[in-house]
User: What shape does this take?
Amino acid sequence: MLKRTEGIVLKNSLFGEADLIVTYLTRDYGLLKVFAKSPRKIKSRFGSSLEPLTYSNISFMGKEDANLPRLTQSDIIKTFHTLRDDFKRLLNVSEMLELSLKFMPEREPHFAVFKLLLGTLTKLEPDSENALYFLYYKIKFLEISGYAPRLDMCGRCGTTSYNGSCNGHNNFYVSHGSIICEKCIRDREGSIRLSDGTVRLYNSLIKWRLSNINRVKAPAYMLSEIGQVINSHVAYILGRSKQLRKENFAVGITP
Ligand SMILES: [Zn+2]
Assistant: This one.
């Protein structure tokens, strides 16, 4: 059966000599892998529509349970090529795309994530030096997926972290995925000390809309502290799920 949707290419990988497996984040099917026949043989518009970040109308064919449906058509809506052409930008954007690839199950529709990625790329294209967009995307992605770090309350006793000032609630514990208040702290190992401003900025960012981000000016140290929280949090979750997979394999359970 032929199906149509819109998709943004997250990655493509070589399959055989001339074919590609293309992974999309789609509007209607979530993360979707499709097989593209011979796009590399001729330098075609079809071939260039499969470059990472390209946003297209796509058609694919395959049975409901087919592992790898075949991509039959892709018509470019936007290439976002300026985000691909510069190495530093590409690196930052790749980190954004990696989150979908690592956290999202295949073929489970997630319109909010699709909208977030499309919106962020659209905002980033003319304003790619604004590092806040990259952070905003990661925070919102984790929030939508239910994995966002909590900087608004103590992960042990639930006391809220700030009402103007942070009252010493500024230690983020990677293994808790949250801050822990002064009363509950037992061991400072594995914690990241954050400034008051960083905690406030994070708690605001998580509530703000994408359209407001260009009005925010944040000092570099805050961006760097939030970046550190997000990156260590993501690495911890991924490391733990890998460990779980390994343990499940060890006792013969298929994850
Ligand atoms: Zn506490």
